[in-house]
Amino acid sequence: MEFVVEEGKRVDEECSTLILPALSIGNVGQLAVDLLVSSTGADRVGYLDDPYLLPCVGNDAYGPLPCGEISLPLEVYESPSTATTLAQQRSPVAKGMMIKFAENIADFAASSGKKHVIVLSSLDFQRLHHNLDMSRGPQVYYLSNAEANGRDEHCERLGFGRLNEYDSEGRCWKYLCSVFDENCKEELTFPSEDELEDIDYYPSLPFAALFSAFKARGLKVTCLLCYCSEGDNIPDAFLLTRRSRRRFHSFLVLV
Amino acid sequence: MEDVLTENPPPSRFFQEDLNNFASPPPEPPLPSPFILFSSPKPELPLKPSLLIIALSSPSLHIFHSCLPSKTLIGTLIIPELPFSGNTVEPSLQDKSCNIYSLSDNNNENSVLLISVQLPVSPERSNLVSRLLIGQDIVPERVIILDSIQSRNFRGRLSPDEALAAKLETSSEKKAAATSRMNLDYFPSGSVIDGLSASLLSRCQLKNIRGTLVVSWPEFDPSVVRFVGGLLKSIVPGLDNKSVGKDLEMYSSRSGLKKDAWLDSDLYT
Description:
The structure holds two protein chains of two kinds.
Chain A: E1 2-5, E2 17-21, H1 28-40, E3 43-49, E4 56-58, E5 74-79, E6 84-89, H2 98-111, E7 116-124, E8 141-144, H3 153-157, E9 161-162, H4 171-180, H5 201-204, H6 206-216, E10 220-228, H7 234-254
Parallel strand pairs in A: 2-6, 2-7, 7-10, 8-9
Antiparallel strand pairs in A: 1-3, 3-5, 5-6, 8-10
Helix pairs in contact in A: 1-7, 2-6, 4-6
Chain B: E1 35-38, E2 51-55, H1 58-67, E3 72-78, E4 98-102, E5 112-117, H2 123-133, E6 142-148, E7 164-169, H3 171-175, E8 192-194, H4 196-206, E9 210-217, H5 222-233
Parallel strand pairs in B: 2-5, 2-6, 6-9
Antiparallel strand pairs in B: 1-3, 3-4, 4-5, 7-9
Helix pairs in contact in B: 1-5, 2-4
């Protein structure tokens, strides 16, 4: 994966928190990143060129009128006021290459000095096997590598729900770990599509590959997730955006 | 109102396999990489044309073959997994090929290269192909890509009776003098272009090369052929304007769509 700086732009090394979407139901992660780019006034500073990303181009995604500013599949924005880098992904990864893609983007994050990565994603409401507690309104869930069981004290204080379905000893989570960790001596087999069960749903999603890849590179990573169904997912994107801003603002306070 | 449960998802949604880390990867061993075969004697590489025009759409391919008799075949792109069966010895519009032609004048100062893409390039192979065509053996100063609007990626109605065209440009093309740029409306926001033409324009943007992607609709229509001919008239030396209107009945939308033979199934080669 090559990072190409846009002509006339410079990278701000102070933008050490990286926020990016994971492809997910309803495109919620991508919609949320669009909202963050718009609301923070982030400026595009470059592009990531990856061989596993399918090609697409389009007109400017943010202005009210099509001004002809070209958009590419994977773009990097910076918001110095919030010290964040935002990567927006606009096209899918080639089938079967998600793990390679996750490895590449983790390499980019590590080599460019990122300290914290926040992955925004959604989860399929139909895959939920327990009732959601809606008494406090729509809930955002999290998965973090702060503790081995996925827990993060800071996220708990912010009122995010821990993703209880995360099981670091589950076979698919362990497989992802083994793929990205060069020091892993355990040889685990690739689970075939026919062998996958309900419990394997979460580690099969792109956010899980990204989480495991960033974790293996020694980066602090937090996944923020919300349940939704296909339809008008703009409200879900707003929910994720508001909560992610709380998360990375509080992280900045700690730093 | 469409039923969100039973209708195919709109272009921005995903299929299950797009969201599966454990979807089967491509089979081993991997496919051999595409490559360019240049005519003998092999030219000095990299080629540095002042203009590279890449035709992907049916109207632009028709114009390349019918209206540019003075072009010289200098090379061809080989995609190993695509068979040559049915191709003719002399380049033909019916071939499954990707030929590279030169329109150089005698002193080569304003060299123009044409690439006629007459074979299907999968999205997964597009990145490799676009790297070969732009930035390695061919390093152009300016690129024009001609493709058709893909209705599946277009948000809005496309009428089969109404021709339209739009463009996308790289940043360096936008900065160029207005008189040297294509006078077309921009492709609307919210719609996307994918595949090889998108990969080619992306490559131009990444390499800071002046690039324009012109997309037209419908795919087979005499008015679009005339439009593309008019567009190229001022920038392509030797374009035979009188031939632009030849054989246009094969593009008549009223008599039924007649696709070019190279779109036919391999079973009938």
